[in-house]
Amino acid sequence: xxxxxxxxxxxxxxxxxxxxxxxxxxxxxxxxxxxxxxxxxxxxxxxxxxxxxxxxxxxxxxxxxxxxxxxxxxxxxxxxxxxxxxxxxxxxxxxxxxxxxxxxxxxxxxxxxxxxxxxxxxxxxxxxxxxxxxxxxxxxxxxxxxxxxxxxxxxxxxxxxxxxxxxxxxxxxxxx
Length: 176
Prior knowledge:
By secondary structure, this protein is an all-alpha fold. Helices cover 78% and strands 0% of the residues. The chain has one domain (2-132). The chain contains six helices and no strands. The chain is elongated and about 55 Å long. The two termini are 41 Å apart. The model is unreliable at 135-152, 154-166 and 172-176 (pLDDT under 50).
């Protein structure tokens, strides 16, 4: 149950990061169609960049602590990219250069958005596997309470279940 709660918390944190990136895209789109001026757009975006970076770091830490290695490894490139932007002081939008870099900034955030949507889909899949897995989906893979914690990422559990079903189907077809 505690692992399911950690997954739900991580899912909410992932949704928070997704909404921050979506807000930045909306601000850049509003700037592109002249709904807001460049000063307001840069101010709004720069206010949410630091919470995005911190929440992404906390999300990776949660995945690391809970032992969800696949999700941690999938989230790590995004965190490394954010750290690289931070070290190079390229994480804030410059008001004087915002129109020159508008296409690049928008494409960068759209890529982040698509990447986060992929992580959300994987997190939903893993959460469903964890929630559904007290009997391990009826595949006879019950190896005690530690099984769920070891294979909570989903890919390993899915692979094991698929291999078990395939082997049981092939053994049942060769018997009959």
